[in-house]
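N-dimethylarginine dimethylaminohydrolase
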Amino acid sequence: MCSPRFFRVEYEINPWMDTGVPVDADLAVKQWERLREILIELGHTVHTLDPDPGLPDMVFAANGAFTVDGVAYGARFRFPQRGAEAAAHRAFYTTHGWPHTESAEINEGEGDFAYLPGVAGGLILAGYGFRTAPPAHAEAVEVLGRPIVPLHLTDPRFYHLDTALAALDDRTIAYYPGAFSAGSQRVLRRLFPDAVLADEADALDFGLNLVSDGRHVVLNSDAAALAARLAAAGFTPVPVELSELKKGGGSVKCCVAELRG
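C-alpha cells:
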C-alpha cells in the first residue's frame, strides 16, 4: 500500500476524475489508515511504499505490478501522468528479492488482472478495452506461466477489470455483467456459474473494487446490496469508507497490491 499523503485530482484520465471537485487530503489519509488497520486486524502483513509528491495517484498501489508465485509482472502505464510509478514498484520488488519483469506492453498491474489459483491450475482473468493492451496478455503468459482468459471491458466507467470483477476465493468471483462485452459475459457465465452478481448501483459505488482473503471481504461501505449478497454466499463483508479516494476512480482494491508468494 502507499499513503495518499500527496493524493489530489490534478488531471482527468478516467470518468471519475474531476479537477473541479476538491479532495480533502486529511480525510483521504484517515480513510486509508483505517483500511490499512482493518487488513492488519484481519491478520495480514502490510508493506508500504513511500509516496512521491509528484505522483498523486501512487495511493492506487494495485496498478504497479501483478504477482503470482513470487514473480512480479511489472506495469507499463498507458498515461504519462502515472508512468514514473512503475519504477517505484520495481524498486520495491527487487529490494525484497522478488523476480521482476519490466513489461514491454501497456498494462496496469492488478488493475486488469485477477488470479484464481483453484481454477485450471491457476487461472488469470485479464481485462482489456481501456487501459491494458491485449498484447500484454501474451507477455504475462510467458512471464507467469499461467493460462489467461481475456475479458473485454466496454463501459468506460469500468475502465479497469478490478472495478467490475473480483476474486472472492480460489474459485469464486463477483462481477457486474454490464461492464463486459456480450462474448465476455458468456465466457464468465460458463466458467463461473455460481458467481456473485453485482447490480449497476453497487458497481458504480466501487463495491467490486474489493479485497478478499477467502472469508473476509473488505469492500466500499456504499455497496450495501452487494455486501448482503456476499453474506448470503457465505462470506463476511467488512465495509470501509473511502469517499475521498473514489474521487480518483478507485477504492479498496486499487489501494492494495496483493503479494502472492
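The radius of gyration is 17 Å.
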